[in-house]
Design a protein that fits this description.
This protein is rod-shaped. It has 678 residues and is α+β, with helices and mostly antiparallel strands. A hairpin with a 6-residue loop joins strand 12 (308-312) and strand 13.
Length: 678
């Protein structure tokens, strides 16, 4: 059959007439066409395979794998370019071709290849296209395979047309037989035609008169004359014979006529034969085309690189045929595989048989199975991992005829996965080792940081206990000074009581600092600030009796409960008030005010000293920063105070006072649960 291209414009009337002649627009594309698409999708490993008919206005998708599109208007798709060029079209990446990538239905298409589907007379009716979302190459062998698939579709179209013609012919024969219009021919014992029925006219182009009296072998094609002469002699001897032969009709063409000849007796008493003939040319042609299509399918089966096997369409799963790739992979001779159930070459054949029974039910229901992985055994017992998928092949009436199974050796993929897993484990091990190293480094840094904190803590302890020790010293010196005065015993008693109280304060300070160094919060409870602040003022005053500085206290609110440790808060206030006292001039004044504002309790310490420059105020809470280094300042008092206040959820700020000097404001959250005792 010739399918050479006929160069015509895309909408040439002859091409459109060919589409109409073969009825491809209204043709229901059955399993045979879908099978071709599945083969194309599998062979080329693409996600989309479509079969189209390209009309004057639309590209109609008649069958598809991986696409649900129906009609695509001309100018918006890629497949129509095959018809416009009237040749095979291949694009490695459609998105790199501006005139195609802008088309509406080219979105998501990378690789594309399309082959014309031609009528037996050579006109392009549509296309067989394959596409994928990612670009890929396409070599000469791929081209030949796609061309073979397209020619197979052409054969199927021709077969469909032939079947339609055959049905029409059978209907005509039925009418003829009822007429009757079957050709009936009588031949005498010498081989001359004595009679022909009227149906000879439409069948051969001859009239009965033109045939009568002529030698019947003159109308038989030379390639069949010898056999027909033998059959004629057999019939003259009294035996029934039948067969087919090619006859040359009136216009010189050849038709195949099926005939049945029986012996008879002519009116003159001599033997003769009577033959009933019917034209079977169309059936013969269809059979020839089917044989060609089957041969092409067989070639695809045999030349496939993937192992493939045909099995019985029943629960036995016996192999009917296996291709060379199948035989080579498993080491069996092809005749050894015939009759062997496919489950027998599976690892763990008993479980395999149960699974294949389930797969058979799935094939009967769906017509195919999803791809799955299993281990098969070679003839030598080697286990090979393969990917398996199967399709149920059916005849035009939908009856199951065989199961096509395709296997794919995935040993290389398994090895790649193993190496990838091994590399992943090695990488994770390296990460774990590096993490361990980093953790050890971090622990060393934390140790160094704790050692540094110990130094800071020691400095802090020294600074904090310096105040009560100073008070103890001042009380002791005062008692000694009053030794010669009257009533000195009472003075000594008060001095000793002050010393005891300040010694206890040193112990509490040390315990508080140790808890802080261990990261342990000190015990806290709700306490009234109006009681805590005066105690801190008394501590400062006992240390600065020789200073001519007055400390004024004013409480603008009562019952100002704050969750705190009073010893810690006294440390904060002593540091702040003492700094204020040291900052004012002789006969100066420091005021301390306690009030409430919203949800906070406020403590304001204001002095009328010379103040602190703005640049220094921004750093006064930094550890070891001091503006009185020459006077013995350590720079830890305000730093410790800031840490305690912030740990209580509060805030401490230092600003310029209203009349110069410095204002320190401490804000602490009020404790609203007044049911707990202070």
């Amino acid at each position: 059959m010739s399918t050479e291209a006929v160069s015509l414009p895309r909408d040439d009337p002859k091409r459109l007439a060919a589409i109409d002649h073969y009825g491809v627009i209204d043709l229901e594309y059955g399993p045979r066409f879908e099978r071709v698409l599945r083969i194309a999708a599998r062979v080329f490993d693409v996600s989309v395979a479509v079969l189209t008919v390209v009309t004057e206005r639309d590209t109609i998708i008649k069958a598809a794998i991986g696409s649900d599109a129906q009609n695509v208007p001309r100018g918006e798709g890629v497949c129509e370019t095959v018809i416009e060029r009237d040749e095979f079209v291949h694009h490695q990446d459609v998105q790199r071709i501006p005139e195609l990538s802008r088309r509406k239905y080219s979105e998501g298409i990378g690789f594309y290849a399309g082959m014309p589907i031609r009528s037996p007379s050579g006109y392009a009716l549509g296309t067989l296209c394959i596409a994928n979302g990612t670009p890929r190459s396409f070599d000469e062998r791929d081209f030949e395979t796609l061309r073979d698939l397209a020619e197979t579709v052409t054969d199927l179209l021709a077969h469909h047309r032939a079947e339609r013609d055959r049905d029409e012919t059978l209907e005509r024969l039925r009418i003829v037989s009822q007429a009757p219009n079957i050709l009936i021919v009588e031949v005498d014992d010498q081989g001359f035609i004595q009679h022909a029925s009227p149906s000879v006219i439409p069948m051969t182009g001859y009239t009965p008169t033109q045939l009568e009296g002529r030698f019947f072998l003159d109308f038989v094609h030379e390639r069949g004359r010898a056999r027909l002469a033998e059959d004629y002699a057999t019939a003259i001897r009294g035996e029934y014979v039948e067969g087919e032969a090619d006859f040359v009709i009136h216009d010189g063409s050849v038709r195949t006529l099926a005939w049945s000849t029986c012996p008879a007796t002519a009116p003159n008493g001599k033997p003769c034969t009577v033959s009933v003939m019917r034209d079977v040319s169309e059936r013969v042609r269809v059979q020839q085309e089917i044989a060609i299509a089957q041969e092409r399918y067989q070639q695809l089966f045999e030349t496939s690189c993937d192992p493939m096997a045909l099995a019985r369409a029943d629960r036995t799963g016996e192999i009917l045929e296996a291709n060379g790739a199948f035989s080579e992979l498993f080491g069996y001779a092809r005749d050894e595989l015939v009759g062997k159930p496919l489950a027998q070459i599976r690892a763990n054949s008993e479980l395999a048989r149960e699974e294949m029974l389930q797969k058979y039910d799935e094939l009967m229901t769906r017509g195919y199975t999803d791809e799955y992985e299993r281990d098969f055994l070679t003839r030598d017992g080697e286990s090979i991992p393969v990917s398996v998928c199967a399709w149920m092949l059916r005849d035009p009436n939908g009856h199951a005829i065989s199961i096509l199974t395709r296997l794919r050796d995935i040993r290389a993929e398994r090895e790649r996965d193993r190496l990838q897993s091994q590399l992943q484990e090695e990488l994770e091990e390296r990460v774990r080792a590096r993490t361990h190293e980093l953790e050890e480094t971090l622990n060393r840094l934390k140790t160094a940081e704790r050692l540094a904190s110990v130094g800071t803590l020691a400095s802090g302890v020294a600074h904090q206990i310096n105040n009560p020790i100073g008070a103890i010293l001042a009380a002791s010196e005062f008692a000694l000074m009053c030794e010669s005065e009257e009533g000195f015993k009472e003075t000594w008693r008060r001095a000793l009581m002050d010393a005891v109280e300040q010694s206890k304060r040193c112990g509490r300070i040390v315990r508080s600092m140790l808890q802080y160094s261990r990261g342990t919060r000190t015990e806290r409870w709700p306490e009234d600030l109006s009681l805590v602040v005066p105690r801190a003022i008394r501590i400062v005053e006992s240390q600065t009796r020789h200073e001519s500085v007055g400390v004024q206290f004013r409480c603008a609110a009562s019952n100002l409960l704050v969750m705190m440790n009073p010893i810690e808060m006294e440390q904060v206030l002593v540091n702040v008030i003492e700094n204020a006292v040291e900052a004012v001039w002789q006969n100066g004044e420091v005021s301390v005010r306690v009030s409430a504002e919203g949800d906070d309790a406020l403590i304001e310490v204001v002095d009328d000293g010379e103040g602190i420059p703005e640049q220094a105020r921004r750093r006064v809470f930094d550890p070891f920063y001091t503006t009185r280094q020459e006077q013995g300042g350590t720079g830890l008092g305000l730093s410790v105070a800031d840490g305690i206040v912030r740990d209580l959820g509060g805030d401490i700020q230092m600003r310029e006072g209203p009349l110069g000097g410095t204002r320190v404001t401490i804000a602490l959250p009020l404790h609203r649960d007044t049911s707990q005792p202070s």
